[in-house]
Design a protein that fits this description.
Elements lengths: L42 E3 L2 E3 L3 E3 L8 H10 L3 E3 L17 E5 L10 E6 L8 H14 L4 E6 L5 H13 L4 E5 L13 H4 L2 H14 L4 E4 L8 H9 L4 E4 L3 E3 L2 E2 L6 E2 L9 E4 L4 H18 L5 E5 L5 H10 L3 E4 L1 H6 L3 H15 L19 H14 L18 H6 L5
Parallel strand pairs: 3-4, 3-16, 4-7, 7-8, 8-9, 9-10, 10-15, 15-16
Antiparallel strand pairs: 1-2, 5-6, 6-14, 11-14, 12-13
Helix pairs in contact: 3-5, 5-6, 7-8, 8-10
The chain binds flavin mononucleotide.
GO molecular function: dihydropyrimidine dehydrogenase (NADP+) activity; NADP binding; uracil binding
EC number: 1.3.1.2
Protein name: dihydropyrimidine dehydrogenase (NADP(+))
Length: 415
């Protein structure tokens, strides 16, 4: 395996792959010509050029040729296909497999969906069928980025066979699903690997000794410290991290039947939570991984942020933390493939507001503003001293009152 230090600057315009004897160079791709004065949304990540940073996240929006073609036609920067494995015959889905949380506490169907749970497994379509569709897509869209998402059992030969076959289909990169929280861990797959650092190190080693295209390791948030498996995946040679996969959840209990949801023949199993409700959690995890990359991998690795993106502003937040690309899965299931146009317009509006002309102008700009709580206390002390204490919020817990409680809480909220 060649030296990792050579795979520098994931976002630089010069492809790092050009300098890597072991990794296949990404296909040259079409970059959207931005009009005069238009903020440029194009990105180059691990040598992969995309017209914008918006990528279809692995899941239903990347299940087959028809829907992936639609994504390319609508203008998505890239597509990550639904996760595939060698033997789809072992993948048996149930229905219903989704459940939704609405903003209204009484669940009014008029109120917006804020959370989404799924107990869907990886692709149940034969690998050969999926690979033929990847080939067809790359034939029709040679300039567009198609990423294969893969998962296998704890078996080196199986991983190597899967990587070889998926790479042969012409995909530009691989995303490794170390993170599916339901169903697959029962077979020592998905999150079972992402949650066990020793196992992850071994499996990541197998993957990176075999892969010849860039590898993104997709992390589970269902772990105390997401930087630990991320560090291992990067040290084992992965070019990038993708985060987050879904958060383990139980959507609710039907108070009439007393059965959990989604309910399959009277029973349920914990699933994966996604959509708007997970966005703040995803921001925190992405922030931690961005800091890890900055501090421990200064030669550069890529970061693909995922979780609850429905607006250009959601995406701007991830990029401000250091993300190179932004994935959307549930957002597409709710709003359709045309969502990408709104995402691009809103992201450009944000860029215009700050006179940013490119994504690199603001990528990671908010990361330096995270510090420890102890440091916040110190900074506040200094600020109060300097301003001769214009009273902001309460000085001590003893100052809270019953009558003014809501106002007092309000005085300490930042937005
Ligand atoms: C119905 C459904 C199926 C999913 N299937 C996969 C999958 O096969 N592989 C994978 O890596 N992630 C899968 N995910 C996780 C998403 O790619 C994504 O990480 C997660 O949903 C958070 O992003 P979102 O809020 O944009 O959906 C799935 C998510 C949903 C909702």
């Amino acid at each position: 395996m060649e030296s990792l230090t050579l795979r520098a600057s994931p976002s630089s315009t010069a492809s790092p792959l050009l300098r890597l004897p072991g990794r296949r160079r990404a296909a040259s791709v079409r970059v959207s010509a931005s009009g005069a004065g238009e903020p440029d949304l194009s990105v180059t990540v691990n040598g992969l050029k995309m017209p914008n940073p918006f990528v279809i996240g692995s899941g239903p929006p990347g299940t087959n040729y028809t829907v992936m073609k639609r994504a390319f036609d609508e203008g998505w920067g890239g597509v990550i296909a639904k996760t595939v494995s060698l033997d789809a015959g072992k993948v048996i889905n149930v229905t219903p497999r989704y459940a939704r949380l609405r903003a209204d506490p009484n669940g009014s169907t008029k109120s917006p969906i804020i959370g989404w749970q799924n107990i869907e497994l990886i692709s149940d379509r034969p690998l050969e069928t999926m690979l033929n569709e990847f080939k067809q897509l790359k034939k029709e869209y040679p300039d567009r980025i198609l990423i294969g998402s893969i998962m296998e059992e704890y078996n080196k030969a199986a991983w190597h066979e899967l990587i070889e076959r998926v790479e042969e289909s012409g995909v530009d990169a691989l995303e490794i699903n170390f993170s599916c929280p339901h169903g697959m861990p029962e077979r020592k797959m998905g999150a079972a690997v992402g949650q066990d650092c020793a196992l992850l190190e071994e499996v990541s080693g197998w993957i990176n000794e075999k892969a010849t295209v860039p590898v993104w390791s997709k992390m589970t948030p269902n772990i105390t410290d997401i930087t630990q498996p991320s560090r291992i995946a990067l040290k084992s040679g992965s070019e990038g991290i993708a985060a987050i996969n879904t958060i383990m959840s139980v959507m609710g209990i039907d108070l009439k039947t007393l059965r959990p949801e989604p309910c399959v023949e009277g029973y349920s199993t914990p699933g994966g939570y996604s959509a708007r409700a997970v966005h703040p959690i995803a921001l925190a995890k992405v922030m931690q991984i961005a800091r890890l990359i900055k501090e421990e991998f200064p030669e550069g690795r890529s970061l693909s942020a995922i979780g609850g993106v429905e607006t250009g502003n959601d995406a701007a937040e991830f990029i401000l933390l250091g993300a190179d690309t932004v994935q959307v899965c549930t957002g597409v299931m709710m709003h359709g493939y045309g969502l990408v146009k709104k995402l691009c317009t809103e992201l450009q509006d944000f860029m215009r507001m700050h006179d940013f002309t490119s994504i690199e102008d603001f990528r990671g700009a908010s990361l330096p503003y995270f510090t420890t709580h102890t440091d916040l206390v110190q900074r506040q002390k200094e600020a109060i001293k300097q301003r001769k204490a214009i009273r902001m919020g309460l000085q001590s817990d003893k100052d809270w009152t019953g009558d003014g409680f809501v106002k007092e809480t309000e005085s300490m909220v930042s937005n």
